[in-house]
Abscisic acid receptor PYL8
Amino acid sequence: MNGNCNGRGGTGCVESEYIRRHHTRNDLADHQCSSSLVKHIKAPVQLCLGFYSLWNLIGDEFLSLVFWFSQSFLKYFFDFQQVWSLVRRFDQPQKYKPFISRCVVLGNLEIGSLREVDVRSGLPATTSTERLELLDDDEHILSIRIVGGDHRLKNYSSVISLHPEIIDGRPGTLVIESFVVDVPDGNTKDETCYFVEALIKCNLKSLADVSEHLAVQDRTEPIDCM
């Protein structure tokens, strides 16, 4: 689904602001299509006891105030390793991407590194060569670009970013993934976007399933950071 500012509890506005900040594509050509998708993952992250207790006492109004006042304040309390540890693995995307059967990184793992990906049967592709464009462990942003392979996703690039949120009274993660790709000859923009969005939705659902399963296994009491 596309993030939009629907005014319901400010959630849509928060998503739209993240999309504007990290996913806006100003160089989109007429022969390309682009979209942003959002996924809410119920994967608890470590939370300091002082913040947890204060939030329980004051409630969602306190959380909303903190969130709007300073994103960096929330980042101090949240540990994204549960979800981010899966997303950041440029060398092992098959950990959560169901359509990838094998991945080999060529050379050292760094910005500009290439990976050769084997695609599972059932898709109109067999291989993909992808370059690591950005890996930001502080902002939790990963960007890749497809530079070759046996498929029709020409000039494909994507950005995925992670952000803290509260889901059902527990810490969770908001994931936003955007892409730009050329529209193949014989296809429309709507057809191309529909196909790519379907793939990303499957990947994000799998990311949620894996992360939430790990979260259930690792769930502990909040950690006192004093």
In short: The mean pLDDT is 81.
